[in-house]
Amino acid sequence: MPLNMTFIEQKLGRASPTETAQLVDALRGHVLTLSQQVYGNHVIRKALESVDKALQIELINEISAQVIPLSLHKYGNWVIRSLLEHCTEQQKRPVLEQLHDNVLTLATDQYGSFVIEHMAEHGLPEDRNRIVHILKGDILKYVQHKFASNIIEKCLICGTADQKKALIDNVCVG
């Protein structure tokens, strides 16, 4: 990792509130670019994980403009997954809504599928319900799909009894 990215990532983990605010201020306007870089995405993920909620909102606002392209990106998908894991329900709800609107596109993509898996694991039961409802419509296609099948497996692991039953029933009927 380049020295400057390593320094920023380490500094975010142990900076004072004033220093953290200054670091986030320096990231402003560069969040999307960094999210798509091999080392830069680590900085954005660390920021989402370690800054206070007010500063998280600044980062989320930039990320929200490009949720789907980031979800489909080799490095950007890691940033979206970090957001889903470390932000409050209220903060991540607009991002989740964008993801719900694009479940089929993301589920069949090599990187987007990881985001939907993460949503199934870290979202609310209602989020999983929406994923299950979409995928069960063509379940036989998705259980055989290289990427979408992993999402179905995650729903079977993390889902409620009703969600599991809906998936299994559709496979048996299919």
TrEMBL record:
Which cellular component, as a GO term, is one annotated location? cytoplasm
Span of domain PUM-HD: 1-174
Q: Name one GO biological process term.
A: post-transcriptional regulation of gene expression
- Asked if the record carries the keyword Repeat, the reply is yes
Pumilio repeat start-end pairs: 26-61, 62-97, 98-133, 134-169
List, in alphabetical order, the Gene Ontology terms for molecular function in this entry. mRNA 3'-UTR binding
Q: What Pfam families does the database record attribute to this sequence?
A: PUF
Q: Which UniProt keywords apply?
A: Developmental protein, Differentiation, Repeat
Instruction: Enumerate the InterPro entries for this protein.
Output: ARM-like (IPR011989), ARM-type_fold (IPR016024), PUM-HD (IPR033133), Pumilio_RNA-bd_rpt (IPR001313)
Q: Which domain of life is it from?
A: Eukaryota
Q: Which SMART domains match?
A: Pumilio
Protein name from the UniProt record: PUM-HD domain-containing protein
Which species? Globodera pallida (Potato cyst nematode worm)
